[in-house]
Amino acid sequence: MTTTGATPQAGAARAGGYARGRRKREQILQAAITLFGEAGFHGTSLRDIAGAAGISHPGLLHHFPTKAAVLEALLEHRDAVDEADLEADRERGTDLFTALVHLMERNALRPAIVDLYTSVAAEATSADHPAHAYFERRYARTIALIVDELAARRDAGELVPGLDLETTARSLVAIMDGMQLQWLLARDLPRAQRPDMAATLGAYLDLILVTPPQDAPAP
Fold it and tell me: Where DNA binds (residue ranges) (predicted)?
């Protein structure tokens, strides 16, 4: 009896090809993180990224046909990592505000990602920037999430009375983004002299919450 379909050897070859493709894609994205963070989106070319990744320009185009496609993949990856970390915190019983403080603590360990976000966000204020709509959606989603949490705190009597929820949410996000910028500007200073992003966010939360944010309970 004969059989049809791929042989085990062909399947293994395909799997090896997929793995090599994933590794090469990751190399490209890691190179792009650094270059976009240093020179911005407009100041970086696909040839720059290819050179930094150790790949030919045609080889890069096989994975990413445009510079905008590289940027989109980077932003999607950043969001996926952040959302997974936040979700893991929430599943452990950590409240949203403490989870955001934890996010700032993690960001202090990944300067390349913070540099990328800050540089591209500044450029993306232009309506014709390929990430403009992405940042519009991201800010709208983040503000809405925080407003919902503030409303729940208000209803539970845990929010300082009289605060406008949207203004407070926007202030919180402004502190997070502004502290990232200040932290980047001070990254060449000794660690003890750099601003503490997480502590600054925590101090603001102490001003607006009657009940301090709670971390996950001990197991």
Answer: 45-64
Q: What is the distance between the alpha carbons of residues 113 and 145, in angstroms, rounded to a whole number? A: 22
- pLDDT grade for 3, boundaries at 50, 70 and 90: very low
Rounded mean pLDDT, 80-87: 87
What's the CA gap between 55 and 76, in Å, rounded?
22
Where do you find CATH 1.10.357.10 in the chain?
67-213
The pTM of the full predicted model, rounded to 2 decimals, is: 0.80
Question: Which pair of structure tokens corresponds to residue 8?
Answer: 């085990």
What SS3 state is found at 134?
helix
State pLDDT tens for residues 141-166.
999 999 999 999 999 999 999 999 99
The terminus-to-terminus CA distance of the chain in angstroms comes to: 59
Assign a CATH topology to domain 8-65.
Arc Repressor Mutant, subunit A (1.10.10)
* Burial status of residue 19 (CB atoms within 10 A of its CB: 0-12, 13-18, 19 or more): exposed
Q: What is the pLDDT of residue 8?
A: 58
